[in-house]
Amino acid sequence: DLSITFEARKTTAVVGPTGAGKSSMIYLLDRFYHPEKGVITIGSRDIRQVPLHILRKNIGFVLQDVRLFSGTLWENILLGAAEKDRAYAAGVLNRLGIPDFSDRFQEGLETRLGEEGRGMSSGERQIIAFARAFAVNPPILVLDEATASVDPLTERLIQQALHVLLKGRTAIVIAHRLSTIRRADRIVVIQDGHVAESGTHASLIEDSGLYARYHRIQGD
Fold first, then answer.
1. Looking at the predicted structure, is the pLDDT value of residue 82 above 90?
2. Which residue intervals of 61-121 are DSSP H helices?
3. Which residues contact 25 (CB under 8 A, 6 or more apart)?
């Protein structure tokens, strides 16, 4: 009995307690499994009628668990992108508004990362994940708990990158940290697999419901 419409070129945030069904909804969207009842459509087309490789080409995912691989920083950024050169990776960081990110590393974009990116912070991993998504440029973007707690300097970079990354896309942002979704066009609160409330940050605070309770607890 869950019904949500994600508007084109708008950012919709989804929040709720652990086990409410947030990640399950995303797995259904990417066809890791199919709904037993009901239908998921993009536009008016049932996603089960869309070839899987085309569906997944048009939906980008940024997850909290960022997988990095042995290779240079720029090769990790361009994973999955059509363009494959250092200059393009530098351009991606520049367009994201974080051109100095590579300066954190001794050899810049040519820095070789070890398997799984050993020694990198969670925030640095997230920035690489945002850059990957921007390089691939999908029309639909899903962020699933992709803004973990990081140091203030890295958080500023992340917020800058997010502002650019989400602009003009159909974005679904799943987050526990409410500070990261204040600017969302719409916030949907789900509980036990149902929509409990929805609205903007300001309207939900004014309603003094579940979202407002989360806000008070987090002190955001």
1. no
2. 73-77, 86-95
3. 2, 4, 14, 190
**pTM here?**
0.87
Encoding tokens for residue 182? 């204040």
Q: How many CB atoms lie within 10 A of CB 169?
A: 19
Q: Are strands 45-46 and 59-63 parallel, antiparallel or unpaired?
A: unpaired
How far is 38 from 189, CA to CA, in rounded Å?
20
Residue spans of beta strands (DSSP E) within the chain? 11-15, 41-42, 45-46, 59-63, 71-72, 112-113, 140-144, 170-174, 186-191, 194-199
Rounded to an integer, what is the distance from CA 134 to the centroid of its chain?
A: 11
CA distance 148 to 145: 7
SS3 at position 220: coil
Q: List phi, psi (to 5°) of 79.
A: -60, 120
210: which 2 tokens? Answer: 């579940």
Q: What is the DSSP letter of 185?
A: S
* Type of residue numbered 174: I
> d(Cα 140, Cα 161) in Å, to the nearest integer?
16
Residue range 193-202, pLDDT digits in tens: 889 999 999 9
Q: Is the pLDDT of residue 66 over 90?
A: no
